[in-house]
């Protein structure tokens, strides 16, 4: 990618950080190869790239966790001989979940007396700090009870609170991994304000659309080297993907689906945030399920499978009635469920790939005296790891030592092995890099082509438009719209999800389907 | 569906990367080295060190055959109880009632034999069944009443102690028939019966955990109960049955204790809790890369005891054994955690390396 030169957008602010030819070697691997860039006051620099491109190594070098093996980075003098302050906010944020916003913001400062007056002062201070970003939420709630975006914002506020001057460097490592639409927007607004206040922000993300919306410049890494360093104004999604991936990803191919008989039918299903849902899933189709957080989208899939309590309604699979809240019966009826939270529900992280892959349907390997036929199990597992292209090909390695994308491939493979009639998935590409994302979409299409009905719940409207044959939109626990064919556009889905009329809608003009890959 | 699709290569690889068909990381030599690494079998290396040190220090007593014979005999019941604990903790149930369950086994069998006057076979059967029922009760408290296993078994433990006190009136139950005490004392092929019983139970539990689907379900439930449940495993049954199995094995241990010492002692059980847990956790650092396992547990019981015995023979003060056990546990588990971290960072490197495969790619093992 030498074609794209490092164009420098002149933001005018003073330079805060200069990274000059940083090299980091691990045994047998160059994780960072002459990475150079500058960060100026007032700008947002996005660092993008696939899993393993060197993003996290870069952050660790900047944070001082790793020592660079070559090159150097210099933090500018902030005046008065003090270097610019840097602060890192990681995916796992250093807040104490059981303590309130007030208490978290007061952490590390000299303890005040515990009089009610002092407490009130602390509270007003917390509200003021949050309010500076135009936000208002209950600062007396424990961190664990506020939304993920608000949590990130509290972490940012706390970081900034410790700065003696506004010209600092803030590094956000995948801050939006668990945020959706408006939540992420809330965070972006704060990031923009932080930059406007004079800070330089380094923003590390998987999601290219966010990057385009937020950053002034993009630094793309591949195999530890800078493969692109451009201003966001001068490049589009396509180019960005091209830089990151090194070749143009073919579009997810939409095969004309041969939709057959009804596989799964739900009538009047309710429970939790789902009020009343009817739906039909047919053989060979990929049915999308959209909706904002709280619309019931997150609950419905688990409800159909039996993972959550079904309070009302009927679910039929191939015409047979599925008993309520009975996971074993669902699996026996060849219904498969890939939950959104892989680590908590999707897989046993401390078990090996092999053990995870065969967990459902292990009985197939049982011989006399309960003997587990490890040889044929290994054979079956190697067939599936090849099929889903697991990397590295180490089926006896613990699952938590694999990347998110490979973990998800294993979770999907374990269900595909059961030859499901209905494959139900929640956010299957969350926290997964682009390469693995495409692989997962292809797996879903294979499943559908093989005659399964696939139900895909996703917060990402682009994903739905690109992958699905038909999309149902949920709002307030009900299905409020169905989009098929030409009606299946991102803008249309967003409109339905939010319940807006078209003119209220403010989407960016590009509606290219290739964006889905971001 | 998958069978038709299996033939085709489906998934586009991560871009620009050649396809390694099999990874060098699974190579045989690497696996053997990994198996022999200090991390994996530290207990055996420690045993070698203990053996050498005490062989030089107190050779005439430490190397005596009778020393080893009595060591193996005396620890058989501890090892048996620890094997029971393996079953419970593998399923994620921290059974703190183990000590009391040993006590129940010890006192019940004496009660059935002397006070109730039951025949030996019936007394043994009833005692083991009682142990199983206690396990079922603990399991129901955890799965149905949804009480955390620590708290549930702590409560059960206290209740059991009360029961023991009530049944025995805090008195030892004496005058057990010699045909019962013979079980614990008879030698067979040079070792007492408890050794052989322990070996038989250990093999059975090993087989269950390592070689049957049930064992996989137990480990999955202990590893991530929600993921296990969503994979179709009946996790409630897994927990209840694991605790029942644990209760039966542990009650058997208590019963053998009574048979060995010849009296039903109401205070004999609780001191077995800590050694059993120590062995299980220390054992988890052996052989199976952090997974709780039978072989590691049994080996650790004996390695620790070899150290303790050596100190005793060398005339060390009485508090040395406790200190030795405690330090061994903390060091072994601490070391395993440290190495797990380095293993993870090596795995991270491997992930980074995927995008540029190299020849002779070594697995992330460290010395």
Number of domains of chain A: 2
Count of helical stretches of chain A? 16
Question: Structural class of the secondary elements of chain B?
Answer: mainly alpha
Distance between the termini of chain B: 45 Å
Oligomer: heterodimer
In one word, what is the shape of chain B? Answer: globular
Beta-strand content of chain B: under 5%
> How would you state the average pLDDT of chain B, rounded?
84
* 3D shape of chain A: globular
Order of helices and strands of chain B: HHHHHHHHHEEHHHHHHH
Q: Rg of chain B, please?
A: 24 Å
Low-pLDDT ranges of chain B:
1-26, 350-367
What name does the CATH topology of the largest domain in chain A carry? Rossmann fold
Distance between the termini of chain A: 18 Å
DSSP strand tally of chain B: 2
Main sheet properties of chain A:
6 strands, mixed
Descriptive overview:
The complex is a heterodimer of chains A (518) and B (367). With 518 residues, chain A is α/β, with parallel strands linked by helices. Chain A has two domains: 15-245, 3-Layer(aba) Sandwich (Rossmann fold), CATH 3.40.50; 262-350 and 420-517, Rossmann fold. Chain A has helices at residues 55-63, 101-106, 116-131, 148-161, 181-196, 208-214, 237-245, 297-305, 327-332, 342-346, 353-357, 374-387, 404-416, 434-449, 461-467, 490-498, and strands at residues 15-26, 29-40, 44-48, 70-75, 86-89, 169-173, 200-204, 217-222, 225-231, 262-271, 274-282, 286-290, 312-317, 320-321, 335-338, 422-426, 453-457, 470-475, 478-484. Chain A is globular. Mean pLDDT of chain A is 81; it is low at 1-10 and 501-518. Chain B is an all-alpha fold and 367 residues long. Chain B has one domain. Chain B contains 16 helices and two strands. Chain B has helices spanning 2-6, 28-36, 38-57, 59-62, 65-90, 98-115, 120-143, 149-168, 178-185, 193-211, 213-223, 225-230, 235-261, 273-283, 294-313, 320-354, and strands at residues 187-188, 191-192. Mean pLDDT of chain B is 84; it is low at 1-26 and 350-367.
